[in-house]
Amino acid sequence: MRPTGPTGSVSSGIQALMRGLDTLRLLVESGRPMSPTELAEAVGVHQSSVSRILSTLATAGYVRKVAGRRFEPDFGVLTLASAVTTFPLVRKPRAAMAEAASMCPGCLISLSILWRGQILYFLRTVQGEETVDFWGTGFPLHQSAPGMRMLLELPEQDALEMLAMSRVRHGWPRGSDATPTTEVEALERARALFDHDILIIDDWHEPDRFGAATLIDYPGEHPVALSLAGPREVATDDKVRLWLLQIRRAVEKSLQ
Question: What does the pLDDT look like over 179-188, one tens digit per residue?
Fold first, then answer.
């Protein structure tokens, strides 16, 4: 029986909001216009419900209709991006991350969190380039050093489920023969490579490139990782570990 009264109204409102957010997120992540039918199948609701959601989002300026009765994100989505720099986790370590880039020439340095099975990157910086505040378009977990490092903190079944979700969302690209082929293999090999709180993986994303990550001590329900990635020729494993430990101290100090 459908809930009635105030409690039922609140429950229905929350459900509608969640569906609207799911629809908007799918449109942003897809990178292409999508039809109401495609969105309904992805969200798991009737097409008429998605049509109402799209109409509301269009009125608010977050989506727009394009040719062929398809929809894509509108400029209203950009207004949400301005909230990124209000997070202390993004704002406070900026100077420390910029200084770290000069310490590790040729390397990409990032902070990231594991949020609902996805890795969200922020403060991605490289020496001589502008820092990217937020990069949340998604990335295959099995190819991500910080993603795999954060998965090691979870119960095995939860970690395997997140890897399976990543396979559905991003496929299972293999950058080289060294890339693990299954969720179980990825987790087992990450455990074997994990040493002194640092994970270093080679060639999982591209040949002759490394990725390394450690965790940042920061309160909250989501783990936070600091990562380095770059050509293998720029540093030995010992040098990478030293860099990570030095940057971690600077970042954690900035967050106090």
Answer: 999 999 999 9
What is the Cα–Cα distance from 43 to 29, expressed in whole angstroms? 13
Nearest CA among 208, 246, 207, 236 for reference residue 109: 246
Q: 150 CB contacts (<8 Å, ≥6 apart)?
A: 112, 113, 114, 119, 213, 215, 223, 225
> Which of these, 252, 195, 187, 208, lies nearest to 226 by C-alpha position?
252
Quote the CA–CA distance of 8 and 65 in Å, as a whole number: 32
Give the integer Cα–Cα distance in Å for 174 and 204. 7
Q: What is the DSSP string of 24-62?
A: HHHHHHH-S-B-HHHHHHHHTS-HHHHHHHHHHHHHHTS
Between the alpha carbon of residue 157 and those of residues 93, 140, 151, 154, 248, the distances in Å are: 33, 18, 10, 8, 29
14-24 confidence digits (pLDDT tens): 778 888 888 88
- Residue 229, SS3 per DSSP: strand
What is the C-alpha to C-alpha distance for residues 242 and 256, in angstroms, rounded to an integer? 22
